[in-house]
Automatic annotation (TrEMBL), chains A, B:
Pfam families: ADH_N_2, ADH_zinc_N
MF terms (GO), sorted A to Z: oxidoreductase activity, acting on the CH-CH group of donors, NAD or NADP as acceptor
Keyword terms of this UniProt record: Oxidoreductase
Signal peptide: none
Protein name (record): Domain containing protein
Domain Enoyl reductase (ER) span(s) in chain numbering: 37-328
PANTHER family: PROSTAGLANDIN REDUCTASE, PROSTAGLANDIN REDUCTASE 1
SMART domains membership: PKS_ER (SM00829)
Domain of life: Bacteria
Length: 331, 331
């Protein structure tokens, strides 16, 4: 009798996971009831976000010891009591790390027959591809001539970001972790340049590759590479935070603002400098004068008299000891 | 003879500036030539960004030992050889820390006569006010019912952000550094709540004040307060980075992503989660299939055979040893 081979989490890893943290388990192939189908797994997708599930800190949920690992798969329906799925249908769903699985059809997609091999529905025509497509086009707003930097440049998401960037007319600079990956990015995937962060001094290499700054950064890694690229943004840059490869294996949170918070909340974080907003001056003065008239605005000034006292007043301000707008009455 | 009293930087401070870092200097009142006017300073604005100028790291330029401190002032024209400025005109410009100054009229604004006292043109009706107005309305996009958190809540910018937020129908939570400031924010400036970060445990106090998360955060401080608030953003939150009070006195850069980079570049940083973008699925598949047909997209799969090898393959992926989209061929 054929069995269903499954991979379960044996132990929650600390740091980088090793094969010993996983266990092979065999059990009977499940029976199906009305409204269900049985499928065999053709292809299983492995993705970095799974490290976050194992750590119990991914938005899609957690995997504990004894649980089957989760994962999206391309499956072929081999038995069915579901009216919408026929034997032979090729579908994708979160079937997990196992040879056979059943489903009630919820959150199952049939694979477009034009997608061949069907494994592409896990890659450039699946979630990594959609991530790159929607992330770059909708959040990155690429324009012809923009300088686009993408990390994990040969991964499922990164390689699509770079290639879509080229289609949109960007100059594309990849960051990857080996000379072989960088070679592929430039020779096969149309990147203009690809920097090897394990060999090159990344700040220097980025300056050379992007002398006029970076207009779009599509980040799949977080950590030090994110910090380095953020030093080189051009005016009005767009940064898409999409992955945390550098953090997935970390048990302790890195110091500083955690990009995971921005990803989790799909936040928009923007830099504000008033010099860009002087065109609002007239509206601003009219509105505030009206609000003052209506009693909707109050204010407090922290006034010292005499230019000689400016230094002392400034020092109080820098210790947070002022109260209200700090002003020196000079004459 | 009356002299022009000026305040110059005596010494570049390390850490929090002290009065000893500044020096009083007296010299003759300047003569004016054709196309210039002479003015006496009525009010001088002191602002935290000046700390960055002294450190040589502000976008508006640097102040070195021996230089007059820079600063925006309200001035009265007392002598003129400039056709557009008459004696008695009240103007604002970057006159610096001194009693008298001359100007060729470039980047000088005449003060709207409805602004009384004219010192308000340095505060709620000046740059801090415009910063709050444009930053909150254009970048924060406040909607009625939004939870708005603002740090340095009683400062020139923060107090206006909170009050404009109330006008726009937000629930406004301030963060300030003393009980007295918090009392003023709530009792005078219409804030719903104000948290004293020196007394309250800020993470707990924020949870209590914003049980459903934070929709808009207007940050004037950076540092630890920024990190704490970022943990509590709600879905689709907007964060406006506008000041770095917590960092201005630091000589060494804090670890982690430096918010100064986002401010300097006026960048937009966004979190990307593919689950929000499934409405693009159809466009995505059509575009990518066309691009594949046109030879514009290539791909690389890192395929291992057999579900038993999933764990090993995943461990390679987490070490960055994969090359291309990682897939397990199961059947």
């Amino acid at each position: 009798m054929q069995l269903n081979t499954q991979i379960k989490l044996a132990e929650t890893p600390t740091g980088t996971p090793e094969p010993k943290h996983f266990a092979v388990h065999n059990e009977a192939i499940p029976d199906i009831e009305n409204g269900e189908f049985l499928s065999k797994t053709l292809y299983l997708s492995l993705d970095p976000y799974m490290r976050g599930q194992i750590a119990g800190r991914h938005i899609s949920g957690r995997v504990d010891p004894g649980d089957i690992l989760r994962g999206e798969a391309i499956c072929e329906v081999i038995d069915t009591k579901h009216p919408e799925f026929a034997v032979g249908d090729i579908v994708s769903y979160f079937a997990g790390w196992q040879k056979f699985s059943k489903s009630d059809g919820q959150q199952v997609s049939k694979i477009d027959s034009r997608i061949t091999p069907s494994s592409l529905a896990l890659g450039i025509l699946g979630m990594p591809g959609l991530t790159a497509y929607a992330g770059l086009i909708d959040l990155g707003e690429p324009k012809a001539g923009d300088v686009l930097v993408v990390s994990a440049a040969t991964g499922g998401v990164g390689s699509m970001v770079g290639q879509i960037g080229k289609i949109k007319g960007c100059r594309v600079v990849g960051i990857a972790g080996s000379a072989e990956k960088c070679k592929w990015a430039v020779e096969n995937a149309n990147f203009d340049v690809c920097l090897n962060y394990r060999e090159d001094d990344l700040p220097t290499a980025l300056d050379k590759a992007c002398p006029d700054g970076i207009d779009i950064y599509f980040d799949n890694v977080g950590g030090e590479i994110l910090e380095t690229v953020m030093e080189k943004l051009s005016l009005g840059a767009r940064v898409i935070l999409c992955g945390l490869m550098a953090q997935y294996n970390q048990d302790e949170r890195l110091p500083g603002t955690n990009p995971a918070n921005i990803i989790r909340s799909r936040a928009t974080v923007r830099g504000m400098v008033v010099y860009d907003h002087f065109h609002k001056q007239k509206d601003f003065v009219e509105d505030v004068l009206n609000w003052l008239d209506d009693g909707l605005i109050t204010y407090r000034e922290d006034v010292s008299e005499g230019i000689e006292n400016a230094a002392e007043s400034f020092c109080r301000l820098m210790k947070g000891q002022n109260f209200g707008k700090t002003i020196i009455k000079v004459a």
